[in-house]
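Morning F.,

Quick status update on the modeling queue. The single chain you submitted on Monday has been processed. Sequence for confirmation:
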Amino acid sequence: MRFPGIAYAWYERRLRQSLPAERLPEHIGVMVDGNRRWARLAGAPTRDGHQAGADKILEFLGWCQELGVRVVTLYMLSTDNLNRDPEELEPLLGIIGNTLDRLGEQRDLRVQPVGALDILPEDLAAQLCRLGESTAAGQGLHVNVAIGYGGRREIVDAVKELLRDAEANGRSIAEVTETLTDSQISEYLYTRGQPDPELVIRTSGEQRLSGFLMWQSAYSEFYFCEALWPDFRRVDFLRALRDYASRQRRFGS
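Structure tokens below.
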């Protein structure tokens, strides 16, 4: 009975050793998809799926730390998710809050809220702000938690802030439009100052962005995995990294 486990551990170790350190991504975006389907297949309440997904997040971040990944962006709750049935949404928000507490207990993480805090329940928005402030000095893995996040909303917010700053500095809209560049808009995104994700992973077999990092992922490599997020294994992650390392990035050319 032990041989399958031994063979699996051997394969995982070989896979890890085959990854060239210089070809690993600096920033990984992850769409943690499939929690509800996992619960349905298990004959369990939806809450159990969300909890299993939350537990996987902590495990996944540990893998990233081991491999020296610098930045991870986790798509945890979209703006559309806030329209779910309250019977599902309220437990989900509680699980997210608990997960934020657990992230705050991790050593040396820097956790940054990425989303429209004004559309979140006040207590969750306040918790996100406190967590961002308390971990701001962290020198380890930088974790963007995309909660209340929408890619279109992010771009709109960036343009609004850019125009407000221009007005405060006495510049007219005409002046702004004459000199506006994509790099200027990038400076107002939620992820400003960070490298764009080189790799975006989506679990559960779905092959679409769903508004995730629409601006930042223009030249990202995408990896779609059939595993539901709670079932996502370290070997699945290593395979994604192997696939990424084997690609020739063309940046639109």
